[in-house]
Amino acid sequence: PLTFVAPQPGRLAFARLRSWTASLAYVGRETNHTLALTELGARTPKRSLIIIFTDFVDTTSAELMIENIGLLAKRHLIIFVTIRDPELEALADHPPEDLDSIATLVAANQWVQDRRRVLERLVRLGVTIVDARPGTVTAQLISTYLDIKARDLI
Predict the structure, then answer these.
(1) How do beta strands 77-83 and 49-53 pair?
(2) What CA–CA distances, in Å, run from 121 to 3, 118, 137, 149?
(3) Could you tell me the fold of the domain covering 47-150?
(4) Can you give the pTM of this predicted structure?
(5) Would you say 101 and 121 are in contact if contact means Cβ atoms under 8 Å apart?
């Protein structure tokens, strides 16, 4: 279901947002990035810092997402947060031992390259990327935010 929490000022805003997100239920459907990002753009007319936590499964879904993030990036400051898959990266770095592992290596390398290309395109659109391993997401996001504040971008 589509839900929206309006931007709020002040130090307590993050605590309220965290509490709200904790109550969200998991839905086993693919995200409709076009609908979500279009709705977000319509509801936030003032220049804002928008942090998008997501990932993409294939280049088709990524293409739609990139197009819509590009529209948002014209008015807003966007941080795109995505979490790396250490197991998949390990598969891409592991030397093959048989035919099955060669196929796995090729597929893993293709995924890593596609992912890198998508993130590079977002950077060219002016989007700030936080591409982190699971244990480092929070620290990297905070560091990125502090850097943005230090440069007076928001």
Answers:
(1) parallel
(2) 28, 5, 21, 24
(3) Rossmann fold (3.40.50)
(4) 0.84
(5) no
